[in-house]
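Record filed here:
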Amino acid sequence: MNIAKIMIPKSLTVFLHESDSVRQGLENLRRHGYTAIPVLDASGRYIGSVTEGDFLRCILEEGTTDKRVLENRRIGELLRQEFCPALPIDAPEDTVIDTVLRQNFVPIVDDRNVLCGIVTRRRLISYLTGRELSL
């Protein structure tokens, strides 16, 4: 499997930076209608993903939905260890399939751990069934 052919490239992917505020993250999540978003460090390396649940836990910890309070918390504080691991761009097909079964999307990284794009369940299923891939 040529992952580069089926992945959504980084330039068309929504992502956050670890230094973004929780407020910014919530706004992006809502604007795009996603349930999880990849998070990058300042060098563009993939460091994890955040979910709706991560934002909810943060709001419950703060005890408020006040945007001014959420502006002071950073996305990097929400990341959970080993959640939504990335795969290398040359990962075998079986590994990609197994990972997509457990995650909504799979972040794809190069040998420097820089995000290249994501593979979604929809794109993988379309590829495996021979259907036309669209963005």
Remarks:
- The chain has six helices and seven strands.
- Residues 3-128 form a domain with the CBS-domain fold (CATH 3.10.580.10).
